[in-house]
Write a structure and sequence with these properties.
Number of strands: 19
Keywords: Hydrolase, Metal-binding, Zinc
Oligomer: single chain
CATH superfamily of the largest domain: Zn peptidases
Family: Belongs to the peptidase M20A family.
Shape: elongated
Strand content: 15-25%
Protein name: M20 family metallopeptidase
Organism: Saliphagus infecundisoli
CATH topology of the largest domain: Aminopeptidase
CATH architecture of the largest domain: 3-Layer(aba) Sandwich
Number of helices: 9
Strand order of the largest sheet: 1-2-6-3-7-17
Order of helices and strands: HHEEEEEHEHEEEHEEEEHEEHEHEEEH
Largest sheet: 6 strands, mixed
Helix content: 25-40%
Structural class: alpha+beta
Cofactor: Zn(2+)
Number of domains: 2
């Protein structure tokens, strides 16, 4: 917990920042429907004199998505000094049913701001927006890049992928992603916290192929649904990797789809299975693991083992760990003590997000530092308002140290 008697060292305005967050929360922005919030972020940054630019994001083959990221850059005085990225996504999950109030209310009560996406992650978005505006007047040697990206909650992370695919991240030296960290950390922690890595994720897409027969004579067929059930159970219990920082991997069957005839043995079934992985596991080993499980079951049916279709083969959420001794981590730890009066907790993330693309694919030292809350992706989602301010203050102090 922060030291409540500690005085902040930056000029982040509490009321103005929370008003900005309320405006962001009140804009409906589920993934693939982000245009309004993208324009809002762009216009806010433009009014702040930060000269933002749009980056086109297009994926015509699978999703048909057309959207835009927003990028803004503060140029430092020394071209040889590091450049670091501040990243947040603008989208939310689809609005969930069951809210007892307007899910986009932005209501503030008892230090909590409510609304779909308030914690995941418009609180973090507001924090980097005000932090970059504050840093615009700082004397920095290195550059700061803000990216507000689309489609993090969607199936492929198209916004962050576009930054990597167009080579923007090749010129960066480190990244901060302001996702809510403690709520999905591998250990029970509270803010202020630095999340220094994350598990990766693969999604098995398995097709079980049987043989149809009349349902009154099932022995004459090969039931794909029955074998898919056996396979789901076996995969759920398979051996997984372990890592000293990231913990254990995990396997979770997500769906079984098969059979439609009213009195026929189903001859086809599709099985989707989530597989979270740790450092040391990759696409080849994960695929081989599933194939061994299939072989060991000696099923009647044939099984095609693969991964979910993706726009590009390299669009995978790989695991990563950032070294605790990296200069950015040291700057963030020092800034946390300066702002909050306590040392930050250190932990690792249990799931995946854009930070995997930056930390694994782009090979950037990547730290998750974001405001915490509760009920992300669900009804009653909220973010702690003091966390939003604190994250912005820590980022400003760390940037002055790391780039100053």
């Amino acid at each position: 917990m922060s030291d409540p008697s500690h005085s902040p060292t930056t000029a982040i305005d509490h009321d103005e920042t929370i008003e900005l967050l309320q405006e962001l929360v009140r804009i409906r922005s589920p993934y693939f429907e982000e245009e309004e919030i993208v324009e809002f972020v762009h216009d806010w940054l433009e009014e702040a004199g930060l000269e933002p630019e749009y980056q086109e994001v297009s994926e015509p083959e699978i999703t048909g998505f057309e959207g835009r990221n927003v990028l803004a850059r503060l140029e430092g005085s020394d071209p040889e000094a590091p450049t670091f990225l501040l990243n947040a996504h603008v989208d939310t999950v689809q609005l969930v049913e069951g809210w007892e109030e307007d899910p986009l209310s932005g209501r503030v009560e008892d230090g909590k701001l409510y609304g779909q996406g308030a914690c995941d992650m418009k609180g973090g978005l507001a924090a980097i927006m005000v932090a970059v505006r504050e840093l615009a007047d700082a004397d920095l040697r290195g550059d700061v890049v803000l990216s507000a990206v689309v489609d993090e909650e969607g199936p492929y992370g198209l916004g962050a992928d576009r930054m990597i695919r167009e080579g923007l991240t090749d010129a960066y030296d480190a990244a901060i992603v302001t996702e809510p960290g403690p709520i999905l950390a591998q250990s029970e922690i509270e803010n202020p916290a630095l999340i220094l890595g994350a598990r990766g994720r693969f999604l098995y897409d398995l097709v079980v192929r049987g043989h149809a027969a009349h349902g009154s004579q099932p022995e004459k067929g090969k039931n794909a649904v029955v074998d898919a059930g056996r396979l789901a159970e076996a995969l759920a219990g398979m051996d997984v990797g372990t890592h000293p920082q990231l913990g254990d991997g995990s396997v979770c069957p997500l769906s079984i789809e098969g059979g439609s005839q009213t009195l026929s043995v189903p001859d086809r079934c599709r099985l989707l299975v989530d597989r979270h992985v740790v450092v040391g596991e990759d696409a080849e080993s994960v695929l081989a693991d599933a194939e061994r499980v299939v072989e060991g079951l000696e099923l009647d049916c044939e099984v095609d083992v693969g991964f979910r279709e993706a726009p590009e083969e390299d669009m995978r959420y790989g695991p990563y760990v950032t070294d605790e001794d990296h200069p950015l981590v040291a700057s963030l730890a020092s800034a946390t003590e300066s702002v909050a009066g306590v040392e930050p907790a250190i932990s690792y993330f249990s799931s995946v997000g854009d930070f995997n693309y930056f930390g694994h694919r782009a090979e950037l030292p990547t730290v998750i530092l974001g405001p915490d809350g509760e009920n992300i992706h669900g009804t009653g989602e909220f973010v702690y308002t003091d966390d939003v301010i604190e994250v912005a203050e820590i980022i400003v102090e760390a940037a002055r140290s790391y780039l100053g």
